[in-house]
Amino acid sequence: DVKVTQSSRYLVKRTGEKVFLECVQDMDHENMFWYRQDPGLGLRLIYFSYDVKMKEKGDIPEGYSVSREKKERFSLILESASTNQTSMYLCASRQGYTDTQYFGPGTRLTVL
Amino acid sequence: AQKITQTQPGMFVQEKEAVTLDCTYDTSDPSYGLFWYKQPSSGEMIFLIYQGSYDQQNATEGRYSLNFQKARKSANLVISASQLGDSAMYFCAMREGPRSGGGADGLTFGKGTHLIIQP
Predict the structure, then answer these.
(1) What is the mean pLDDT of residues A28-53?
(2) Among A20, B21, B55, B60, which is disulfide-ready with B65 (CB 3.0 to 4.6 Å)?
(3) Are the beta carbons of B106 and A105 separated by less than 8 Å?
(4) For B63-101, how does the pLDDT look when each residue is reduced to its tens digit (9 = 90+)?
(5) Backbone angles phi, psi at A68, to 5 degrees
């Protein structure tokens, strides 16, 4: 079975802090994704990566950056957290372009 | 315009009844894929079923089937013999052709339908 794990289920940070959300997959998938989920808006793509050190902007990249130094790990970085980044963050991975995306359990981030 | 539309924000269904969750999509790409995910209150997104745009037959996975009507651009999820454990949010999602030539583009999600199964 594919396993995607995220470093924290719940996280509380203060405005202006630098925040790291970590995602690890154990299936040697090439493609990894970060989404945020907000009530009434569904999931929206923040960034994705199709290879180590490669990254592409999704639909809402503003205020975020990412890092992929190893194939199994994809990090989402909030350089200076703001209250409007309070959300559920979901990581996903996929092997090939037409394959299914598998999601991690999510991190519920609250920025005070 | 929304690419994925789920018109039912919430549904109440009696246990053991069949359920149809609506999804319409909008794309001009001839090659696309349609997915359904279930999200229980725990938060994890669970993959249910997939339909490719060139698939001739409707996809089925156990109690889940996808009623794919290409001309109408609809991809409704049908759950047969609903169970209490089916209570969750359900999301329809679409993968379109590559935006920039071979990239790992993500899925576009609808806003979801909250399904509640009543005993």
Answers:
(1) 92
(2) B60
(3) no
(4) 999 999 999 999 999 999 999 999 999 999 998 875 544
(5) -135, 90
What counts of helices (H) and strands (E) characterise chain A? 0, 11
Contact list, B42 vs chain A (CB under 8 Å): 105
CA atoms of B62 and B8, how far apart (whole Å): 23
Mean residue pLDDT of chain A comes to: 93
Chain A residues in contact with B95 (beta carbon < 8 A): 97-98
CA distance linking residue A36 with residue A49, whole number of Å: 16
Yes or no, beta carbons of A58 and B106 under 8 Å apart: yes
Chain B hits for A98, Cβ within 8 Å: 33, 52, 95
What token pair was written down for A2? 């594919």
* pLDDT tens-digit readout, B48-60: 999 999 888 999 9
B37 touches chain A (CB under 8 A): yes
Q: How far apart are CA B119 and CA B84, in angstroms?
A: 7
